[in-house]
Amino acid sequence: MLRWAGLNLLAGSVSGSAIAQTVEFTARKAEVDLEQRCAELDGDVEVKSGSLRLRAPRLKIEETADGVGVEGPGRLSGCSCPAPPLELGFERAEISRDGDVDLSGPRLTSGDTTLLYLPRLMLRGPNSAGMLPPTVGYSGRDGAFLGVAAELPLVSSAGQERPGTTRVRLGVGAYSRLERIADGARVSLDVSGPSGRSALAWESLDGGMVDIDAHGASGVVSYRADAARGRRALVGPLAFSRVIAPQDRARLAFASWSPAGSAYAQIRGDSARGLPGIDGAELGASSGYAVDVWETDVAGLSWEGDLLGVGGATQPGLGVFRQAMAL
To answer: Can you give the pTM of this predicted structure?
Structure first.
């Protein structure tokens, strides 16, 4: 067992089978048992790792079968300021190898005032599946809304073009105007990853709505779709920037470039936002579509997946713009 008394600062890499990250801590006294793989910190303990800070009068840290155990009591905050406005207190914490944190006796505090107390709280890691916080709302038009959702991360392999984590969120909810149990339903699917994001939602309240908000890019292909169809589209719960949009838009673009020049092609379609059903069709009909082609002998075409257009790097007049088809 190793002991330090009057310890001011110890910084280094705490690594092993359970954790692998750089931490800094201060304490008046520290005892480390290498055989038992545990450490005890005593006296004004402060542990820092990135933007996270843990404060406690005394801490015991030990390796467990699934990760790391921290014996408190202690306070955790995401702010490195001297007096964080909000802190999460706990009696004991279990940190798994997957990044899950299991807190015993958690409480949300502001200074010395306890704002919320729970007997137990499980915080899922970024690569773990779990339930999301419920969505609760009320409006005079729609009534009360209660929704629940779950998230499933899908980690791609490092050999792919854009390795990373793709997250799938599936949510369900119900509207109630308090005259009966449910007046409408909502189902949503949200898939986001390194190549883009696609969100699809369906609602049955007030004639119904299908909401599509998708964008992404992969190699030389990029797409963007912003559409809200159905009678409820103009009053449904959309972002303000999408509510005021005059048209639904869909774009599919292709680009190629070389030292000799660049080429860009786009297929686009537009329609009045919230267009109700035509001839009984729930999704309505499109009001126009076109195929655009841009060619230039200057290798300065700016390819932006979200913008789906010619960027500022290409000056108008340097190439030839062709509209192959427009209706």
So the answer is: 0.61
